[in-house]
Design brief:
The protein has helices at residues 6-11, 13-21, 48-63, 71-78, and strands spanning 2-5, 26-30, 33-38. The chain has 81 residues and is an alpha+beta fold.
């Protein structure tokens, strides 16, 4: 755990952001006394039903047949001369 004074948090909040993004807890002190403990927020967990639906949709999209026309040909054909 990293300890920083309140003044450091106010002057350079990006440094605290970098530390918490790296998974490190940061203790903020005021006149040497602990004031806050800052840590990265945890992402909300989604239910497994919605994960299954997303996986099924992704599988369906990936299993579709590919186009025989190249994307570069589409771009060239769309240009107006």
């Amino acid at each position: 755990m990293k300890t920083l004074p309140l003044r450091e948090l106010l002057r350079r909040p990006a440094s605290v952001k970098k530390l918490t993004a790296a998974g490190q807890d940061v203790q903020i002190t005021d006149n040497g006394k602990p004031l806050w403990l800052v840590r990265a927020a945890r992402a909300k967990t989604t239910d497994s039903t919605s994960n299954k639906l997303v996986d099924e949709e992704l599988d369906a999209l990936l299993s579709e047949r590919r186009s025989t026309v190249s994307s570069s040909k589409l771009v060239l054909d769309s240009r107006v001369l």
